[in-house]
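Possible regression after last week's pipeline update?

I re-ran a chain I had predicted before the update to compare outputs. Posting the input and the new output here so someone can diff against the archived version. Not blocking, just want to make sure nothing changed silently.
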Amino acid sequence: MAPLGTDRRKVARMPMLLGEAVELYVRARVDRREVRPETARVFREALRPFAAAVGAHRRLDSVERADLQAWLAGLRVAPATVRLRLSTVHGFFSWCVIEGHAERDPTAGLRGPRKPRSVPRSLSDAQVARVLGADLTLREAVLVRLMLDEGLRAQEVAGLELADADLAQRTLVVRHGKGGHERVLPLTDACAQSIEDYLGERGRGAGELVLSETNKRSMVGSGLNPHSTAKLVAEVLARAGVNETGHALRHTFARRLLDAGASLRDVQTALGHASIATTQVYLPFSGVIDLRRYMGEPEAPAA
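New output (post-update):
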C-alpha cells in the first residue's frame, strides 16, 4: 500500500495488460466491498468480451479511443445495452487511472447511442370515462381531477396546501414544481367541485390540501407524500381496468390542450416545463389527429 500523501499513479509498478487489469478491477471492487458479487459478475461478463475484442494481451495504456469506437461499432446489441456496456468500461478505466495503472481514460468524452425519447402515453376518452365512472372516494376524486384536469405531477399534488386552492376565483397555485418553479392554473369547474366535496370530509383547517387516510382532519405533516399519491392514483386506474400509471393522467391533460388548439408555449406553461423541448414530445399526439382532420383523400390523376 502506498504511504499516505503519495500519488498512486507515481508508484505504479510494471505496465499492465488489459486482461489482467480487468480481473484485478473486478476482484478489487469485491474485496473492498464496493459492489456485491452479483454486480461483479455483471462487470466481468461485460469487461471480458470487451478485453477479448480489443486485445486482452495488449498493454493497458496502449488502448486508444479508436479501439473503443471500433468495439462499439461491432456490438450487435440493443442501444440500451450498448450504453450500459460503455458505462461499465468507463468505470473500469476511471478506476485504472485512480489506481495508477493507466495515465488516461480513453473513454473520456465518448458517448453511446442516444436514448430515444418515447412519446408519452395518454388515456383514451373511453379510459378516462372508466376512471371517472369508477366508485371513487372523495379523496380519490380530488387526486384524479388534479392530475387529469390540472396536469399536476404526483409531487405537486402532495405539495399543495389548502390555501393554494382559491375556489372563489377558480385558481390553483402550484409551488412545488420541478426546479422550484411556481405557476398559477385555472381550476376547472369539475376539479373545484371535487375539492369542495372533499373539504366537507377533510375540514377547512390550514395545512396540506389532501390528507393521509389516518388523518381525517388537517394537521401539519398529515398530508400525502409523492409516493403514496402516485400509488393511490395507480390503484384507482387499476380498479377501472386501465393499465397505466397516474402520470398518464398528466399526459392526457397535455394531449387534450393540444387537441383543443392550445399553443405549445401555453402547454409548456401549464405543465411547468422549464424547456419547451420537453413539451415538444407531446406533438405526435395531435399530429396524427391533425393529419386525419386536414388530409383528404388524394384526387385520382386525370386519365
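Follow-up from reviewer: compared with the archived run. The chain is about 50% helix and 5% strand. Marking as no regression found.
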